[in-house]
Amino acid sequence: MDVGIKSFLTLSNGQDIPNPRFFVTEENNLAKAHRKLSKAVKGSPEWRKALKVVEHIHERIANKREDFVHKVSLELVRAYDLIVFEDLNIKGMVRNHCLAKHIADVSWNKLINITTYKAEWAGKHVELVNPRNTSQMCSGCGQIVRKDLSERTHKCPFCSLVLDRDQNAAINIL
Prior knowledge:
- The protein is α+β, with helices and mostly antiparallel strands.
- The chain has helices at residues 22-39, 45-79, 90-94, 100-106, 108-122, 165-173, and strands at 2-3, 7-10, 16-18, 82-86, 125-129, 153-155, 162-164.
- It has a 3-stranded antiparallel β-sheet with strand order 1-2-3.
- A hairpin with a 5-residue loop joins β2 and β3 (16-18).
- The termini are close together.
- The mean pLDDT is 93.
């Protein structure tokens, strides 16, 4: 399984689970609540009320994300005996200020942890593999085909294999 920002999860069989983008959808409501909070005098009853609204929005986002991850992990554990993820350095990836918000929003680490404990409970296996060159290597012939992050299609000049970049990575991870 290849986790990503464009699609939440891509399976090696080509199935895509779309990214619900919980934080992005609630971002306008959160910004409005933060503006109201910043205009109130700190410690006043209006400030406490505005703070509760901000906290409620954050809690709602977290609850939606948690529920989604639990549902996806349960589907995975029910459908597969072996589940393989990339062993990503998520803390390091969040340091990229351009992608940090979106990486935090998809909660890959939570997905891996929840899937792992559910798989252990069900007697199934979760493996973590080295992510090195999983999206660069051709799943057909094994040659390295360099590409930028913006290129979403894998086109191998050696064996003429053409498929979605995430699906190619998912096959390599498996």
